From TrEMBL:
Residues 9-116 form the Mutator-like transposase domain. InterPro entries: Mutator_transp_dom. It comes from Ignelater luminosus (Cucubano). It holds the Pfam family Mutator. This is Mutator-like transposase domain-containing protein. It comes from the Eukaryota.
């Protein structure tokens, strides 16, 4: 099951497959995206949907959508990091921050150390 179930119909004679509600299927992806973005997992997402009497995606389908969301996020993160790195490189070159032909940037951290507490 999914938020808007859609079905595939396959014709053995012509070997064509038709899908019902192809545009509504995006809502399943968007639902998993939102669930992941706010930090809830499948269990909490199921509770949310059950409170409004909505069907929930199957575990296999939900996992597939989580993987799809992860791939999109990874591509976007890589793109943003590349753009930021290119900008930092440009600024370093403009500032003359080059050592042995390689532009560099200065990174300042607070020197903090993660603490682990046991209760």
């Amino acid at each position: 099951m999914a938020l808007f179930p859609f079905y595939n119909y396959h014709c053995d004679n012509c070997e064509k497959t038709l899908s019902s509600h192809p545009k509504e299927a995006k809502i399943n992806f968007d639902f998993v995206w939102g669930s992941t973005a706010i930090g809830i997992g499948k269990g909490q997402a199921e509770e949310l949907l059950s409170a409004i009497d909505m069907p929930t995606p199957s575990p296999k389908f939900y996992r597939k959508l989580e993987n799809d969301v992860g791939r999109v996020w990874e591509m976007q993160f890589q793109s943003k990091m590349k753009k930021a790195a290119d900008e930092e490189k440009k600024l370093a070159i403009e500032a003359g921050d080059i050592e042995e032909g390689i532009p560099f940037i200065i990174v300042i951290v607070d020197g903090g150390w993660a603490k682990h507490y046991r209760t």
